[in-house]
């Protein structure tokens, strides 16, 4: 397979996708980037960012539409469209991929506190040790069991 040579296998691993640092806030709906395939030295950072971080962005932000404008624009840019109709525009010329990543994460990304809180809420929701009358899962399964018992008694 041709994609198994060079850096392509590394970018296709699950571990690599988990290493993405940019998790967009909930109000980001669309994120678009414009760059060149054969950039000059000042525009290389945008192409490198797309090469190394685009798959991570897609994995970490499944509800955000990601758009690439390849060889359409003169200068590399990134634009985010927010839920309330506002746009956030970034000029990426002269920046390397680490600078682009840090700027986008600082402007559009969730803070570490918010991300940690969401992660803990997700863990608490999925905890299998939750049981009893106050647990949603337990109440639902009890009502289903009672319903099946009642229908069995009525039909028998």
From TrEMBL:
<keyword id="KW-0689">Ribosomal protein</keyword>
<feature type="domain" description="Ribosomal protein/NADH dehydrogenase">
    <location>
        <begin position="38"/>
        <end position="111"/>
    </location>
</feature>
<comment type="similarity">
    <text>Belongs to the mitochondrion-specific ribosomal protein mS25 family.</text>
</comment>
<dbReference type="InterPro" id="IPR040049">
    <property type="entry name" value="Ribosomal_mS25/mL61"/>
</dbReference>
<keyword id="KW-0496">Mitochondrion</keyword>
<dbReference type="InterPro" id="IPR036249">
    <property type="entry name" value="Thioredoxin-like_sf"/>
</dbReference>
<dbReference type="GO" id="GO:1990904">
    <property type="term" value="C:ribonucleoprotein complex"/>
</dbReference>
<dbReference type="GO" id="GO:0003735">
    <property type="term" value="F:structural constituent of ribosome"/>
</dbReference>
<protein>
    <recommendedName>
        <fullName>Small ribosomal subunit protein mS25</fullName>
    </recommendedName>
</protein>
<dbReference type="GO" id="GO:0005840">
    <property type="term" value="C:ribosome"/>
</dbReference>
<keyword id="KW-0687">Ribonucleoprotein</keyword>
<dbReference type="GO" id="GO:0005739">
    <property type="term" value="C:mitochondrion"/>
</dbReference>
<dbReference type="Pfam" id="PF05047">
    <property type="entry name" value="L51_S25_CI-B8"/>
</dbReference>
<dbReference type="InterPro" id="IPR007741">
    <property type="entry name" value="Ribosomal_mL43/mS25/NADH_DH"/>
</dbReference>
């Amino acid at each position: 397979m041709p994609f198994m040579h060079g850096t392509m296998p590394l970018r296709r691993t699950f571990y690599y996708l988990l290493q993405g640092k940019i998790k967009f806030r909930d109000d980001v709906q669309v994120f678009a980037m414009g760059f060149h395939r054969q950039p000059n030295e000042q525009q290389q950072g945008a192409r490198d960012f797309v090469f190394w971080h685009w798959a991570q962005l897609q994995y970490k932000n499944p509800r955000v539409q990601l758009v690439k404008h390849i060889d359409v624009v003169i200068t590399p840019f990134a634009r985010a469209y927010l839920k309330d109709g506002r746009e956030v525009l970034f000029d990426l010329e002269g920046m390397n991929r680490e600078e682009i990543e840090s700027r986008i994460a600082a402007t559009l990304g969730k803070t570490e506190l918010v991300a940690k809180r969401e992660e803990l809420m997700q863990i608490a929701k999925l905890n299998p040790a939750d049981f009893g009358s106050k647990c949603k899962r337990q109440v639902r399964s009890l009502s289903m069991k009672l319903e099946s018992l009642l229908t069995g008694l009525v039909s028998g």
